[in-house]
Amino acid sequence: MTRTYIKGKRADKEADTRLRIVEAALALHGEIGPAKTTISMIAERAGVQRHTVYAHLPDERATFMACSGLFDERYPLPSPEVWAELNDPEARLRAALIALYQWFARHEAITSHVLRDAEQNATLREVSEMRLGAPLSAIFASLASGLTEKQQAALTVAVSFYTWRTLIRDAGLEVQAAVELMVGTVVNAGR
């Protein structure tokens, strides 16, 4: 008579260990960036051995996919559904930029580190484009209808993390002032 093997508790323990490892890697990406995060650092933060990290995240791509997947699940970019009901294009743009700029503020460190490191790492660039590109494109598309070519160019600038950082961090504007500046820039680009 053969016994049926049920993974049960072992599977739960493996899932918990994997989650702890991914959370450790994600935290390090937010603190120092993916490029400076090592397997040893992840293992130490997660309280496991290096070989355990490799068992769950065998390569760089697996690590980036797991971290970005967990981040997206916990902290998704604002959805266009939030402002879709607004009929006035300026009000829709204002609502979208407020939501997006607030998201940038909450996730500045990790966004900054990932975008910085993606410039030098093709795998990270591919994963970050996949994870950030589609939602940002959806945000852009939800606002671009009816805009001229120049207004769409201004909109591209308005929804950029780098624009947010320049206006908020470098120029010292409050979110509302930065949003109004970008709304005015997009609207006036059509004149």
Structural overview:
Helix 1 crosses helix 6, helix 2 packs across helix 3 and helix 8 packs antiparallel against helix 10. The protein is mainly alpha-helical and about 190 residues long. Helix content is about 75%, strand content about 0%.
Please outline the helices and strands:
Layout: H1 8-31, H2 39-46, H3 50-56, H4 60-74, H5 89-106, H6 108-118, H7 122-144, H8 149-158, H9 161-170, H10 175-188
Highlighted features:
single chain, 191 residues, mainly alpha, 2 domains, 73% helix, elongated
Helix content: over 70%
The residue-averaged pLDDT reads 94
Quote the beta fraction: under 5%
User: Radius of gyration over alpha carbons?
Assistant: 21 Å
**Largest sheet properties:** none
Summing up helix and strand content along with how strands pair, one would put the structural category as mainly alpha
Question: Helix count?
Answer: 10
Quick summary:
This protein is mostly helical and 191 residues long. It has helices at residues 8-31, 39-46, 50-56, 60-74, 89-106, 108-118, 122-144, 149-158, 161-170, 175-188. It is elongated, with a radius of gyration of 21 Å.
